[in-house]
Amino acid sequence: MKLPDGRLPRGNVGWRSNYPRNIDADDTGSFLSITAALAGAVILASMKADAAHLNLLFAWLWIFFGFLSGMILGLFFHRENWLGGYGSFRRRMYRLAHISFFGLGALNLLFWLTIQRGVPLDSLGIIASVAFILGGVTMPVCCVLMAHFPKARFLFGLPVCCLIIGGALSLLLICRNDARLRSAGNPDLDTHQTP
C-alpha cells in the first residue's frame, strides 16, 4: 500500500502491524549485553557465597538463558532463509550458542553436586569453579561472534581451554579425595568386599 504521493507508509500499517519493526534477528549486540549484564549481576550478588554456590547460581542462570535464547531463536525459525537458511554456518553457530547454555549450565550444576558430595573445595577447586564459569560465559559469546566473523574461530580456544582445565582439576579433586578417604579407612569406598 502506498501513500497518495507514492511513498511507502511508515509505522504500523497492514498485516505487519503485529510485528515489532525495530527488532533485527541479526543484531547480537543487545542479546550479548543483556546476557553479560544478568550474568554480572548474579556474580556480584553472590561474591560473598562460596565458589561452589556460585556454580549453582550460574548453572540455573545459564539454563534460564537456554530457555530465553530458544524463545528468541524460535521467533524467527519459521523464515526459511533466516540467518542464511537451516544449514548455513551462521545459523548452526546460533544453535550451538543456544545449546551451550544448557550444556554448560548442566556442567556447572554437576560441579556443584560433586562438591556437595564431600569433595573439599581447596585452591584447585576454586580454580576449577572459575574455569567452568569462564568457559560457560565465553562459549556462547564465541559462537555468536564466530557466526558473524568466521575468521574468529581461534577464539574457541578460550572456552575450550577453560573447560578442559575445569574438568581436569575436578577429576584430580575427586581422585585425591577418594585416596584420602581410602587411607582413612572409609568402608564406602572398598570395592573388594569379603563375605
**Proportion of residues in extended strands:** under 5%
Q: DSSP helix count?
A: 5
Report the biggest beta sheet as strand number plus sense, adding barrel if it closes: none
Helix content: 55-70%
Shape: elongated
Oligomer: single chain
- First-to-last CA distance: 87 Å
Structural class: mainly alpha
Low-confidence stretches: 12-25
Mean pLDDT metric: 78
SSE string, helix = H, strand = E? HHHHH
Gyration radius, in Å: 23 Å
What is the strand tally?
Answer: 0
Can you walk me through this structure?
It is built from five helices and no strands. It has a domain at 68-176. The protein has helices spanning 29-45, 51-74, 89-116, 123-148, 157-183. Helices cover 63% and strands 0% of the residues. By secondary structure, the protein is an all-alpha fold.
Task: Describe this structure in a few short sentences.
By secondary structure, the protein is mainly α. Helix content is 63%, strand content 0%. The termini are far apart.
Key attributes of the depicted protein:
single chain; 5 helices; 63% helix
Annotate the secondary structure layout.
Layout lengths: L28 H17 L5 H24 L14 H28 L6 H26 L8 H27 L12
Helix pairs in contact: 1-2, 2-3, 2-4, 3-4, 4-5
